[in-house]
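Most newcomers find our protein records easier to grasp once they have seen one. A learned vocabulary of local backbone shapes supplies the integers on the structure line. An example says more than a description, so a record of this kind follows:
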Amino acid sequence: MRAIDAGLLICHECHQLNRHQPEVKKQFCTRCGARVHPRQPNSLVRTWALLITAAILYIPANLLPIMTVNSLGKGQPDTIMSGVISLVENGMLPIAAVVFIASILVPTFKLVGIGLLLYSVQRHQPMSVRQRILMYRFIEWIGRWSMLDIFVIAILVAVVRFGSLASVEPGIGAVAFASVVILTMLAALTFDPRLIWDNTESDDDHE
């Protein structure tokens, strides 16, 4: 049984359970005074908007240079993929693997995962509740690693400052990539996970 079936609403601020009052147009938490809803208003629309924007920015994030390493006055702009290839060619396979996973696989998985989750909930596709909730939790957990590339660039830009000898400059691709990471994190936050349970009757998993 869902909380809403028992006439209860949860506050997203303090997690207090409140008795649902259908006759009240705007209901507030009895503990902290925050607005409570049976479901977050326009959750699917907002999440789709953030996800589509992130998917559009994901193209320049991978095609445009993410940083330029200057050495002795010369530098070669690198995209995420060309940077991974350079690391592999220089024998730094572990670092290349970390960058590839954090900068290519994780954002791709988040975009595809959130899209599948939204589609399955909105269209009542035959995906079990257990599969949906595991996917949602994994997307939330893995999101923190998406900023690894941006942190590395920020540290290099701050540390590697030797004038004409050596320097690191961020590229426009870094801005697009950071935007993708932030937008996917916001998409995961705006999605109301309670929607996963709203069509359990159409799923085979009733546990």
Residues 42-202 form one domain.
